[in-house]
Design goal:
Blueprint (H helix, E strand, L loop, with lengths): L3 E4 L2 E4 L1 H18 L15 E7 L6 H11 L5 E6 L6 H6 L4 E5 L9 H10 L6 E5 L3 E3 L3 H12 L2 E5 L1 E2 L10 H11 L13 E5 H7 L11 H11 L4 E5 L4 E3 L6 H17 L3 H20 L4 H21 L4 H5 L1 H22 L1 E4 L2 E4 L3 H8 L1
Length: 374
């Protein structure tokens, strides 16, 4: 939406466009809401099993297992499911004496890799609490005990979105994606619409009542699909942010991995977002796009740029250790975001296939999704 009109000797700001941008920035505040962190509580009496699905995670798995050596709840069991890795993932897991290493069987037809690995690990658990952790997660002492305590208290499916730790310049390109993902899942609501896969916890009883990962075997974005299965079973969904106690470093292998990861997840996630919240997010992103297009064109848009930087600096700090420089550079982030989202929509809706960890993953059509939901 253009807003700078050239006139002889002066530039005039389009007032309706400025108003639209202000409403868009306000929509972002509403969409993000007030995220919650887990209260620090000791684990209850239920046995705890930690299941880590891992495929080619030699850069990350050792860090997680090093944390678990001192941060896992007392008496908990740790299972690493090696999902046909071609690197040192299995050897790294086996080097820790408290870890049970399980090789995932051959991937069945119709299954995606991560649901199959999680299903394999969960099949070894008879009772208590299961905590599924991605291999790139880092945990502080007491964090998983708090996850287990909340799972016992609330029941259903408990999810924690870790705080994003960035180390290299390209990793800052995830900032907008992380904020929008929390908006889309309703992380700032008491009743969120989605969950995040890096940290998921459930009682074995509720997991089986929902159908577990077997019920979402072919889902590319299995965490959102699993949340739907819990809701269908009448079970609660809880979503928290990790703060400094639960964190991760996303896509450490470079820019191509970052693009591949967000391409896999983002268009599918948008399709699962409730319409009202999706409209709020679209308004917010459109406001950022309008500022990006018009920044420098008028004093009004210079002021809007400053306002957006302040807002983004606050939001970025809530999702990761991003610096003020990340917020100042948001026009570049917006261009990258729009490009990756368009590519994700094309791969998801047109080509109906995405790639991840050396596998091509087919996107099921609507008829198959309805059959799986039934």
């Amino acid at each position: 939406m253009g807003c700078i009109h050239r006139r002889p000797g002066r530039r005039r700001t389009c007032v309706p466009t400025v108003v639209f941008v202000l409403f868009g920035l306000a929509a972002g505040i509403v969409a993000f809401g007030r995220t919650r962190r887990l209260p620090a509580e000791p684990a209850g009496a239920a046995p705890i099993t930690i299941v880590v699905p891992a495929r080619n995670e030699h850069l990350s798995l050792g860090n997680l297992l090093g944390d678990l050596a001192g941060a896992r709840p007392a008496g908990s069991r740790v299972i690493v499911v090696d999902d046909h890795s071609v690197d040192d993932t299995a050897a790294i897991a086996a080097s820790h004496d408290f870890v049970e290493v399980v090789a995932a069987p051959e991937l069945p037809s119709g299954w995606c890799g991560k649901p199959w690995a999680c299903h394999t690990g969960a099949g070894l658990v008879d009772d208590g609490i299961i905590v599924f952790l991605d291999a790139d997660v880092r945990v502080a002492p007491g964090a998983l005990a708090a996850v287990a305590a909340e799972t016992e208290r609330a029941g259903g499916l408990v999810s924690v979105q870790p705080r994003h730790e960035v180390r290299r310049p390209y990793e800052h390109l995830s900032a907008l994606f992380n904020v929008v993902a929390l908006m889309g899942a309703g992380a700032g609501r008491r009743r969120p619409s989605g969950v995040f896969g890096p940290v998921l916890a459930s009682s074995v009883l509720d997991y089986r009542a929902s159908g577990g990962h077997a019920a979402v075997s072919g889902a590319v974005v299995e965490d959102l699909a699993l949340a739907d299965r819990y809701r269908d079973a009448g079970l609660a969904i809880s979503l928290f942010v990790g703060g400094r106690d639960i964190r991760f470093r996303m896509y450490p292998r470079g820019l191509s991995q970052l693009v591949e990861g967000w391409t896999k997840n983002f268009a599918s996630g948008a399709g699962a977002t409730p319409p009202v919240r999706l409209a709020l997010i679209a308004g917010w992103v459109s406001a950022l796009v309008s500022i990006t297009v018009n920044v420098g064109g008028s004093a009004a848009f210079a002021a809007l740029y400053v306002l957006a930087v302040v807002q983004l600096a606050v939001l970025f700090r809530r999702v990761g250790n991003y610096s003020i420089a990340t917020a100042l550079a948001f026009p570049a982030l917006v261009v990258f975001f729009v490009g990756v989202f368009a590519w994700s929509a094309y791969r998801t809706l047109v080509r109906r296939t995405v790639s991840w960890s050396g596998r091509d993953i087919a996107i099921p059509g609507r008829r198959r999704r309805l059959a799986e939901a039934g």
